[in-house]
Amino acid sequence: MATTTGRSCLQYLLHLAQDHLDFRLPEIKALLALRGKPFQPSENFKEKTPFWCLDGLSEEDVRSIMARSVCTKSAFELWGHGQTHSELRTSLLKYPSENMALEYLPFEGTVSLKSPQHIFCLLEDYGTDPNNIPEQPFYVYFGRWIADGQRELIRSHSVKNRHFIGNTSMDAALSFIMANHAKVKENDVVFDPFVGTGSLLVACSQFKAYVCGTDIDYNIIHGKGRSSRKNQKWRGPDENIRANLRQYGTEKMYLDVMLV
Ligand SMILES: C[S@@+](CC[C@H](N)C(=O)[O-])C[C@H]1O[C@@H](n2cnc3c(N)ncnc32)[C@H](O)[C@@H]1O
To answer: Can you tell which superkingdom this protein's organism belongs to (predicted)?
Structure first.
């Protein structure tokens, strides 16, 4: 079957992070749903492994998933795979040349390590048990790198460096995963009835939604009371949810928070 670009149906390989295992599938399904695409895993799909092969997607679909996913490390256009390097070689030789519709093939010319036009990766799957690593990989993949996921958001939005925090602040990774599960998108209005210090609102505002919330705790809503930080007795001025959004450049998405 040929696509409109003349390339046969492509398979894409997602390399997933091995944490929040139960939240990965709902995240990818939700991000695909935002594109109106179903989740179509290739044969022998195993949810708990770090490598998933997906069918029925375009490169644009994959790029849009990667622009949001915090559960995925990277995505590749899959060119070959196998249980051994020999099987991989056979699989690569069968890869349709029209899919390699790139003027540089068959890999002639100089290699630019500093600013490559394309990046090719060999990925080896040694399983998920760190105490039982086999001599040889269980499986090997070769593909063209497409994009990285948004794992960086976990570091850049860590509550450790957040302006306003409380004892119940939601961790950054989970906040972004929840925002993805909820398919939050540009111009949505998100209301968190148990808003706390607004971690969920921070994540949703990053995805360009307007955000608001309520909480039963006067001190949380007004940014007063005892600080949750070590070495600080009382919350300082401007320790509130609006300031958290300001910290990440999304203050314009802030609507308001109220005491209930
Ligand atoms: C786990 S925290 C919420 C975390 C928050 N959603 C975030 O993104 O970081 C739970 C919050 O619910 C609030 N809460 C508890 N009971 C409530 C109620 N009946 N109505 C509104 N807020 C309530 C608490 O004061 C607390 O701030």
So the answer is: Eukaryota
